[in-house]
Amino acid sequence: MVTQTIQNPSDDVSSVEVPFVVLYNVSWQTYQSLLADMGEHRAARLAYHHGVLEIKMPSKLHELINRLLERIITTLTEELEMNVLALGSTTFEQEEIAQGVEPDSCFYIQNAEYVNLEDNQPPTNLPPDLVVEVDITSSSKSRLSIYRIMGVPEIWRYHRQGLVILQLQAGQYVECEYSLAFPKVTGEFLRVLVEQGKQAKNQNAVMQTLRNWLSE
Questions:
Q1: Separation between Cα atoms, residue 4 and residue 51, nearest integer Å
Q2: Could you report the per-residue pLDDT of 144-201, keeping only the tens digit for each?
Q3: Do 65 and 198 meet the contact criterion of CB atoms below 8 Å apart?
Q4: What does pTM read for this prediction?
Q5: Do 112 and 84 contact (CB within 8 A), yes or no?
Q6: What angle do CA 83, 74, 131 make, to 5 degrees?
Q7: What structural domains and CATH numbers belong to the chain?
């Protein structure tokens, strides 16, 4: 297995195309007020960590890739007959450690059966098994710190240079060749699917490529 420590990911400054705002010295109360005022039906995604608030507005390309990766994950769970619970960009927050984050997408897979569906809030002691972060409009560098504290075991991170699989090992995210949630899947194969999907006007063809690969 190929691993590479990711302690200080690139800021990917060149990828910023649409508004990305960073505010400092923001209180937890102000962060909560913004969440309430902006409501659930919004494009902006927020991340809060010890007084620093990031607000990003996804671009069309960002959403295309995010939705494509969502479909890939869903198709994998269907074809491999695995449990899955998709929570999208649900807000995960913990006041006691002053942090909150909204992933581009997140999934409970191995731990799907342990999520209490009657609770309106996501579990604070059970992080998603897999998070997707698409760095078209901003860098997920600061978000990785939040996910590390949460204990998210795996992140699929897409940026201009391609897609990498990050796994939490010994308190740091390291780049790995194979997925933890889907041990047959490699980062290289995901990159191929994403590049195919970026050019396709029918993403069902990408899913068929995935299904054919799984059946081989």
A1: 30
A2: 999 999 999 999 999 878 899 999 999 999 999 999 999 999 999 999 999 999 998 9
A3: yes
A4: 0.86
A5: yes
A6: 85
A7: 3-215 (3.90.1570.10)
